[in-house]
Amino acid sequence: MRAFARWSVQRRGRVIGVWAALIVLLAGGAALSGGADYRNGFSFPRSDSQAAQALARDAFPAVSGDVDRIVWHSSAGPVTDPAVREQVQPMLQQVAALPHVASVAGPYTAGSPAVSQDGRTAFATVTFDAPAAEVPKAAVAEVIDTAQAARTADLQVELGGQAIEQSASSGPGPLLAIGLAASALVLLVLFGSVTAMLMPLLTALVALGAGVSVNALVTHVMDLGTSSEAIASMIALGVGVDYSLFIVSRFRALLAEGRTPRQAAAGAVNTSGRAVLFAGGIVVLALLVLLLFGVSITSGIAVAAAVEVFFTMAAALTLLPAVLSLLGHRVNSLRVPGRRLTGSGGVSPRMAAWARLVQRHRWLAASGVAAVMLVLALPVLTLHQGNPDAGTDPPASTTHKAYHLLADGFGPGFNGPLQLVATLPEPSDAAVLTDLAKTIGNDPAVASVSPPRTNPARTAAVLSVTPATSPQATATADLVHRLRDAVIPRATAGSGVAVHVGGPTASFIDLSSLLGSRLLPFVAVVLAIGFVLLLVLFRSLAIPLTAAVVNLLSIGAALGVVGFVFQHGWTGLPPAPVSFAVPVMMFAIVFGLSTDYQVFLLTRVQEEYLGHRDNSRAVREGTGRVSGVITGAAVIMIAVFGSFALGGQLLFQQIGIGFAVAVALDAFLLRLVLVPAVMHILGDRNWRLPGVLNRLPRIHLEEAPAARPAAGPDAKARADADV
User: Which residues contact 235 (CB under 8 A, 6 or more apart)?
Assistant: First the structure.
């Protein structure tokens, strides 16, 4: 690492030039490829709902595209009044003529079920010529604009469905701006200098630019959704600012000790840079383990976030020290009035007093924090996972309004119909489906069942089942499992007819079950990776075991808070299930971030311990020296993640709050209280390694920088030559 640090500083002009050229090349390549081609759908193998979708696509190609709805509500009278029909029918004809619209089925036929009982609400079914993820956003936007042009003071027109909802999904946009502004404020308070504050932000932005451009290219070879890019940018911004913060802090500390700018920049990479490299590698590995699920949505998040975290790590280790070596003492320029410069790396009296307090009351501190974390984790025992439906979309969105118009007019299950698709060995087997429809219709959890409809070749049939409960209700999931496990097998026994239960609601239920079934093996793999890496790094059994337990406490408590806030609705928000993707992503990402803080803390503690072999003193002094930087980094993370909780999309809110809570608990309770307390309790056992493991490689994460050059007229020249 020392040689790499010297190379980055000695060739700083070349390093800066390479980064500038790289940004231009990547941005140009992304533009030449047509820009990002985000796809908001998802796929996963060997599920009943995916089999239903594939069968419907093959047997009913004309109507296998996404099915959405235009909903209108008349406040002046029934929707069947001639005045309302004259407003709506021309609009429906215009929609039917739009690109990528296969058909539009209106409600104005005798006995149509598309008019509510009170006559005030109706809907038309819009079938696109492709699944939602493959319909161009521009085509969906044209449908929305055309339909809503029919609005009047007495006629409300809204739209719902997968394609409509996905067209409203956006990238990070203003949420990143809020996160950047919050990060700038924290850095300004922490450093007391505008120039020092700008260094982590500019480094993170350059890395984000490179990562976003690469991900734009990746969208042409694998499915990445706008939510994947938003989550990746959120993670990369948080860790990017944090990694740069550690480098800048060490650079300023070395300058304060009398190093030359080149020595300080190289020394920062040679010390804190090692921890950045190791911690960033753990985050990337934890993210890539998400690929084991084999689900496009988690794979997209894994690849997008891993790419952007890699660039933030690379920029912090190469571009940042090159720029810092040029700035030198000017890094402390543009000071904030009334703020003293910080970042010397010394132990503040306040943190020293806190470290002594934790040491004196280590048993009370450890048991107290563990109890708090376990209590916060209790809601995990009753966590209800699912896909939050359009009823949880922002209240001002058209999908939210359409959802409630349909629920009020036709029942809550109308927003999540199930599509049953069957293969017919013989045309006469269609009678089996007629009997099946009658049986399903008698189920109290079913609101209605449509008659079976066969394809022209009479080799397949489809029927629609409307549940009596909403798409996110537990009863709806129970109905899907009951149909598959009992009702359909009994009704088709001996006939050779194969029936698959599909539709968006069934797909999300299958996805949630799949992720749940693979969660424990995933957790085991991630824990094993972290354990082995920390075992090799610190040559200790106690440290990786403690890290595993602490990380589980952090993730469990954060998930518990998410369940408390969203699932139970005790905070005033509408009750909603925890998105199926949240626990998986939280474990991968929060585990990586928690391990980051563990590495940054314990490398300094280990450095102190190797100097004097006094565990209590090492824990006390090491914690005191890095606690200010860790808490500052945590506040930045909390600000970035918290800004995403301000977004209207429920997924972003759940992830933002979950990550922010996890980081807050980790930095302020676990790293400053529980971990030091446990290390005081264990004493020298923290650093013991069984003899059988002595052959493990030795990795020195924190290497002291080169000795300070002696004073003299040519001291500066000798120092510059040293790097």
Answer: 283, 305, 308, 309, 589
